[in-house]
Amino acid sequence: MLRARKMRTLLLLLLFIYEARSHAVSTPNFVLLMADDLGIGDPGCYGNKTLRTPNIDRLSRGGVKLTQHLAASPLCTPSRAAFMTGRYPIRSGMASRSQVGVFVFSASSGGLPHSEITFAKLLKNQGYSTALIGKWHLGTSCHNRTDLCHHPLSHGFDYFHGLPVTNLRDCKPGEGSVFTRALRLLVFLPLQVIAITLLTLAVLRCLGLIQVPPCIFFCLFFLAALVLGGLLCFLHYFRPLNCFLMRNRDITQQPMSYDNLTQRLTADAAQFIQRNAKTPFLLVLAFLHMHTALFSSKDFAGKSKHGAYGDAAEEMDWSVGQILDVLDELKLANNTLVYFSSDQGAHVEEVTVKGEGHGGSNGIYKGGKANNWEGGIRVPGILRWPGVIQAGLEIDEPTSNMDIFPTVAKLAGSPLPEDRIIDGRDLMPLLQGRSHRSDHEFLFHYCNFYLNAVRWHPQNSTSIWKAFFFTPKFFPEGANGCFATHVCFCHGQYVTYHDPPLLFDISQDPRERNPLTPTSQPRFREILETMQEAAARHAETLRDVPNQLSLGNLIWKPWLQMCCSSSGLFCQCDWEKQVGRGSH
């Protein structure tokens, strides 16, 4: 009798332990690490021999390395929208029809619509603590500066600490400007026209050929003064009005200081993990590295073999290591899915006025950020979950950053939304070896609003076909990017249209150097016909939605401008240290 009672107690205890472990596995924590403009050729685990990334490499050794992981867009804003929602950015209106494909002003009215469902919303509803630390770049406000309709806190995050827009050269004094081409068109060209007009009128008047009223000269001088005044205001105010840090709904540093910025954000991420060690949590750490302006602390500056870019990359790798160490110290590593990637490929056209390259390496792949050659969309993809995902595995199947949405949702026990198309696919069958093929038979590569290329991985075939409907015109001739415009554009005179589409077999020609022809590929027309039919079926699933990146949504609106001071546009404050001490 006593023995039977002991056996029953033991069985109940074992059942309790099993259920507890099953519950732990079914509700893992999530740490999603997103680099900015990091090339697939930059980390050591992807073949770089001179850039030191020991912590990213450690993550790769302990998990799965995806070698055909693809960004849903080659630009920051649309790529991050797709990552957050599991949907092509064209579905949410986060795909521009103009040359400007991202938000550049904090006081723009466009952004990720509130109707979109992020993985943070789903996990918050499942009882997760959620945080985004670092770069957001998906909009801030809609109608007034306090509605924060596009802000991370309106999209499922309990906590936000970071940059609501993006890191730009203009945010760091002495690093130049991304607006050089626009300033040349809108400022210097008008000033030249005004100067020539003034000089011509003055000469003709002196020669007595025409009578020019003095008011004409006054108006021209006044117009020149307005243009110059606008330029000076832009140069003076852009940095404080757009480059600032927020903690939740409050500005804590305006303008943003780069001093130990990585260390500050990393420490906050570590503290979030520590505060939530006993409850399920989602942490998105979206690095400001490797977008220009490049920056690094004194511990990393001048230490790499790759100049300022290498210094910044090695500092980012240090940050990855700090997060992994915190998970180990708190014994959370075995119950945490860690994901590392980049929002798109390296920006190959990033060259300073001194000729120093500030872009990364896309390895063997053609192109880079802002175009859909493999260098622009094939990004690092690493996932680690000890005991659940096999360590040291390498998978060469096509996967997308949109896949994180359904993967995270399913693991957290959340059903997927049924009122919309989710383009991502659950990665776990592939990661755990239950499937050896990607669930993506077709993937569609957009250049902003425009369908640029289709990728097809047929069933029962090792081929991966990629058909381009148009390609960017690289400049100068023979270059690997659009250096005249700083990024490649998606339509008009900046692209070459292809009829029939340009066809490659990526499995045999990953460098995309040898387009196929009816002579070199007997099934040429059959393959293209299948891909064009898939594109047509995909187009039928699209719905008209408001364009969040229209000119009206992109332009600066003074009534949306956030400022930590009440004294007009004199926006200067630094409450980072004080607030940081109180955030524990």
Brief summary:
With 584 residues, the protein is an alpha/beta fold. It has 14 helices and 16 strands. Mean pLDDT is 92; it is low at 12-25.
Write up this protein.
This protein is α/β, with parallel strands linked by helices and about 575 residues long. Helix content is about 30%, strand content about 15%. Strands 1, 2, 3, 4, 5, 6, 7, 8, 9, 10, 11 and 16 form a twelve-stranded mixed beta sheet that branches. Helix 5 (about 180-205) runs antiparallel to helix 6 (about 215-240). The protein is globular and about 90 Å long. Residues about 10-25 have low confidence and may be disordered.
- Give the overall shape: globular
Can you give the helix content as a percent range?
A: 25-40%
The poorly predicted ranges are 12-25
- How much is the average pLDDT? 92
Query: How can the largest sheet be summarized?
Result: 12 strands, mixed
Write the layout of secondary structure elements.
Layout: H1 2-26, E1 29-35, H2 54-61, E2 64-70, H3 76-85, H4 119-125, E3 129-135, E4 159-163, H5 180-206, H6 214-242, E5 245-247, E6 250-254, H7 261-275, E7 281-286, H8 307-329, E8 336-342, H9 374-377, E9 378-384, E10 393-395, E11 399-400, H10 404-411, H11 428-431, E12 442-447, E13 450-456, E14 465-472, E15 495-505, H12 524-540, H13 551-554, E16 573-574, H14 576-582
Parallel strand pairs: 1-7, 1-8, 2-10, 2-11, 3-4, 3-7
Antiparallel strand pairs: 2-9, 4-5, 5-6, 6-16, 8-9, 12-13, 13-14, 14-15
